[in-house]
């Protein structure tokens, strides 16, 4: 059989994709923030910045000297992005919590919700991402409203912070 294919997949054009996007530019999306406040590698921040743009989230980062360069390198869209900086990660999280935000840590913990069971964020939510080797520090764990765990079947115990954060952000944004 060498006739025309039925149901051929046709990729959307750039203009079709753009037509389905949000119309307004943003300074702060206001409902979802990824918070890798104890990063180990700059490349992960760049990847998370791109994911934040994709899901309509903001990024919160520590005030480390190398962070601005890492974000500039990672911003492959070359458009303004919503980035919050803090010199006091635990204090910043406490401020969000006092303002009524929900704090969800990406952490292997007792009572953690499996990623597949994580509901989309219906209230302002911060996805707290820990250090890749040490996880979320104790002073920040005490502030969390809950934790989400990403099940794994291989030998590793966890994913890198950019991959884990991206999966959780897509789930919280209700896009998967």
UniProtKB/TrEMBL annotation:
Pfam families reported for this sequence: SpoU_methylase
GO MF term list: RNA binding; RNA methyltransferase activity
InterPro entries linked to this entry: Alpha/beta_knot_MTases, rRNA_Methyltransferase, SpoU_MeTrfase, tRNA_m1G_MTases_N
Keywords for the protein's UniProt record, in alphabetical order: Methyltransferase, Transferase
GO biological process, one term: RNA processing
PANTHER family the record matches: RRNA METHYLTRANSFERASE 3, RRNA METHYLTRANSFERASE 3, MITOCHONDRIAL
Protein name: tRNA (Guanosine-2'-O-)-methyltransferase
Provenance organism: Prauserella marina
């Amino acid at each position: 059989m060498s006739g025309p294919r039925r149901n051929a997949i046709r990729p959307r054009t750039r203009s079709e994709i753009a037509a389905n996007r949000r119309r307004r530019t943003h300074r702060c999306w206001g409902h979802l923030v990824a918070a890798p406040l104890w990063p180990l590698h700059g490349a992960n921040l760049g990847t998370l910045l791109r994911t934040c743009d994709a899901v309509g989230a903001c990024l919160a980062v520590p005030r480390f000297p190398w962070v601005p360069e890492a974000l500039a390198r990672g911003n492959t869209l070359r458009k303004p992005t919503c980035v919050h900086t803090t010199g006091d990660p635990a204090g910043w999280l406490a401020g969000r919590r006092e303002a009524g935000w929900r704090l969800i840590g990406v952490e292997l913990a007792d009572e953690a919700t499996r990623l597949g069971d994580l509901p989309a964020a219906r209230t302002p939510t911060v996805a707290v991402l820990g250090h890749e080797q040490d996880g979320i520090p104790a002073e920040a764990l005490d502030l969390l409203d809950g934790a989400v765990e990403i099940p794994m079947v291989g030998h590793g115990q966890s994913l890198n912070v950019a991959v884990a954060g991206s999966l959780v952000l897509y789930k919280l944004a209700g896009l998967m």
